[in-house]
Amino acid sequence: MKTISIKKDTVLFKSVSYSCESIFDYMEKDPSSKCKTNKMIWLSENEDRARSYGSDIKFFRVVKDLTLLDFVGEDCNYDFSPSLTTDTIDSELVGKMSSILKLIGGSSKLSYQSQLLHSLLTGFNFSVGMQLETLKTISDTLEEIKDSDYELEFDDATISQMKVTPDGKSLKMALDEYIEIGEELDSDQKN
């Protein structure tokens, strides 16, 4: 697996419509588990890329050298081991995270579900059109299971209602926004 090094004092960018204080509050929801998913914040090394998501830019300065796995570099395919199972993963994944993976990969093996999520998020082996169709399939599945015995609830919210962004957007809202953006793209952009 390739890695990427980010040196101390490098400036990274994020397009956000909320204050720095709210970002830090979000990241402090469970201070005892700094590396858990609710502590992640996606940053760009490229200001123009960050601006493609919105014009309100925050700047973050790296305070120590970082070595990160390169999940989005050219020809970067993360090898999700076939031995990856719910018995061998972080306990945080079991529950709502594994339920979301099932929205993407159905009843296939966890390693395949993980590969699909990786491709959806990074675009590796996926065109923008494929990403759009995957989002539509997830949205359709959420609509199909709504009000059925298959609709799961976590913390008194269904998967559709679950908050997935620091500013409180539900999974359904986030999906709808990305689908709307994707529908406006021409065929060249989708390819």
List the SSEs and their pairings.
Elements (H helix, E strand, L loop, with lengths): L2 E4 L4 E5 L4 H8 L19 H5 L5 E5 L4 E4 L26 H10 L4 H13 L5 H18 L7 E2 L2 E2 L12 H13 L3 H4 L1
Antiparallel strand pairs: 1-4, 2-3, 5-6
The tally of helices reads 7
Beta-strand fraction estimate: 5-15%
Instruction: State the shape.
Output: globular
List how many beta strands DSSP finds: 6
Helix share bin:
25-40%
Computed structural class: alpha+beta
Low-confidence runs (pLDDT<50, min 5 residues)? none
- Strands of the widest sheet, in order across it, are 1-4
Mean pLDDT over the full residue set = 78
H-E order = EEHHEEHHHEEHH
Can you give keywords for this protein?
two-stranded antiparallel sheet, globular, 7 helices, 6 strands, alpha+beta
Could you characterize the architecture of this molecule?
There is one protein chain. With 191 residues, the protein is α+β, with helices and mostly antiparallel strands. It has a domain at 1-70. Helix content is 37%, strand content 12%. The protein has seven helices and six strands. The protein has helices at 20-27, 47-51, 96-105, 110-122, 128-145, 171-183, 187-190, and strands spanning 3-6, 11-15, 57-61, 66-69, 153-154, 157-158. Strands 1-4 form a two-stranded antiparallel ribbon. Strands 2-3 form a two-stranded antiparallel sheet. Strand 5 (153-154) and strand 6 (157-158) form a beta hairpin. Helix 3 (96-105) crosses helix 4 (110-122) and helix 5 crosses helix 6 (171-183). It is globular, with a radius of gyration of 18 Å. The mean pLDDT is 78.
